[in-house]
């Protein structure tokens, strides 16, 4: 079963929206840091979400994405959809 890992998410964030010089996306505290504090606004997340939907062939709920304010919550959302797809 395919999962989205933090390394996949940070790679896609960098590719879709770049990286703020003052942020270490490889740091240990990234999982629970707000996307805004990491330098990613809603447009950056929208671009990244579109890429994930294409690469993983899934559709993500826009409201749920808005509520996923940290990488941990975002990964949980994506992986829940991926798991549901496998069991369907």
UniProtKB/TrEMBL annotation:
For this protein, the record's InterPro entries field holds: ACP-like_sf, PP-bd_ACP, Ppantetheine_attach_site
One Pfam family this chain carries?
Answer: PP-binding
Domain named Carrier: which ranges? 7-82
Key words of the record: Phosphopantetheine, Phosphoprotein
Protein known as? Actinorhodin polyketide synthase
Origin organism is Streptomyces subrutilus
Classification from the root reads:
Bacteria, Bacillati, Actinomycetota, Actinomycetes, Kitasatosporales
């Amino acid at each position: 079963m395919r999962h989205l890992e933090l390394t996949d998410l940070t790679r896609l964030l960098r590719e879709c929206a770049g990286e703020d010089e003052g942020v270490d996306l490889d740091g240990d505290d990234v999982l629970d840091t707000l996307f805004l504090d990491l330098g990613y606004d809603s447009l950056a997340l929208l671009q990244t979400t579109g890429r994930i939907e294409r690469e993983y062939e899934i559709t993500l709920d826009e409201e749920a994405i808005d509520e996923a304010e940290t990488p941990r919550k975002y990964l949980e959302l994506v992986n829940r959809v991926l798991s549901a797809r496998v069991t369907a």
